[in-house]
Amino acid sequence: MLRGLAWATVQRHRALWARAFGSWAGVPAHVVDLRSDTVTKPGPAMRRAMAEAVVGDDDYGEDPTVRELQEKAAELLGVEQTLFVPTNTMANLISVMCHCRRRGSQLLLGQECHLHVYEQGGVAQIAGVHSHPLPDLPHGTLDLAELERIITRGLGSPHYPVCELICLENTHSSSGGRVLPIDYLRQVRLLAQSYGVRVHLDGARLLNASVALHVPPAHIMEHCDSVSLCFSKGLGAPVGALVGGPKDFIEEAWRLRKALGGGMRQAGVLAAAALVGLADAEEVLLRDHQNAQRFAKGLQELASPICSVDLATVETNIVMVRVNGLPPEELCRHLEAVSADEVAQTGRAVRVLLFPWTERSVRAMWHRDVSAQDTELALRKWGFVLRQLGP
Ligand SMILES: Cc1ncc(COP(=O)(O)O)c(C=O)c1O
What we know:
It is a single chain. Strands 4-10-9-8-7-5-6 form a 7-stranded mixed sheet, with helices on both faces. Strands 11-12-15-14 form a 4-stranded antiparallel sheet. The protein has a two-stranded antiparallel ribbon with strand order 1-2. The longest helix is centred in the last third of the chain and has 21 residues, at about 280-300. By secondary structure, it is α/β, with parallel strands linked by helices. Helix 3 runs parallel beside helix 12 (about 270-280) and helix 4 (about 90-100) packs across helix 11. About 45% of the residues lie in helices and about 15% in strands. Bound molecules: pyridoxal-5'-phosphate (PLP).
């Protein structure tokens, strides 16, 4: 009896230890981090390229590696020029400031888009731009009739702000990485042009959209006036983004980057990482999308009443999982913890890291540091947790 008690105590301590430190009986738990595609760490090739980068003072336009990146990206995006900036938030802010020169200009955008929700209202607090958010439709699109109604309702009246810009996001992250259809982009652009309004694309994940649609990014960009593109998401660089557009737009963007404190000096060490990310982007993003698909299908096959996925909405590297019967935070806690039972039943200790997305959902994002094998391990862990929690 005493031996039984002692064994139970040891087990309890092991479980607590495992939960706290992510290892079981001295064996480190395998971590599958699906919280975001921003969590990637630069691999050996990227670090080598950074170490060996030829650099100069980019604030004098003298960094050859930054120039190489800007030129390659301009060609890829089919724009006249691009400008390297530290973050996609700065790229979006600069773009809005370039397009909306008059204080109180109106910006139309989706109420759930990154620019509106997660960039601290920079366009209001720094640029004096008035955002008018519209409901995002499930596909990440905006209703065209509503767009036109807002653009036209104050035309010619001094009581209304003047609409200067529409911002779209592609892929649209809060709807689960949905890809904006090309025909929709064409229609938004035609509408915007007929009222002298410009279209900016938050293309933090534009290359995911391009891979999913099997079209070059330039094909998507035909329907936009400017773009931001991020290197520190699926492309795996530690930092960096860019703004793309016509030559005069980029000249103004250069001035604004300086004003916002984004002018960098030997930035070639960062541009070198971005170049490595760009070089294998298509292959890596395709693999991310395939892994996300595999996970979504596997989760659906588990047929749990607790979790479900709408497979039709999984278009790129993001999977939105609907959660029933318990708060998503609790599900995330179970997926992160490791226990003796898990090791006994699955032969592994795996911690799956995730963020709750809404009060009824969890969002999982694939990236270059999550392999096909990691995806299988994550699925196995979900299976284990759902069996434990299940009816
Ligand atoms: C769609 C989108 N736009 C912009 C950003 C901002 O990027 P950064 O973190 O580089 O400022 C993010 C970041 O997650 C994003 O998902």
